[in-house]
Predict the 3D structure of the following.
Amino acid sequence: MATTIQASTLTVTIKEDITLNGVKQGGEQTLRIGSINEISKRIVTCPANSETTVAMFHSSVADGTLSP
């Protein structure tokens, strides 16, 4: 039986928080992206002192690739 996924809005927040000489510095930026209807989660081990590919994009989905 097929299911329908209802699109939603992704909210990404980056926050910096630091106090220098008693004065709070930093800031917060929020980005909202609408119409998201798919996610992918995985754990990637990145060894120290070497390059690691964490995502590959290709027009046809295969193992380890994402469709753009």
User: Anything to note?
Assistant: Strands lie at 8-20, 23-36, 56-57, 65-66. The chain has no helices and four strands.
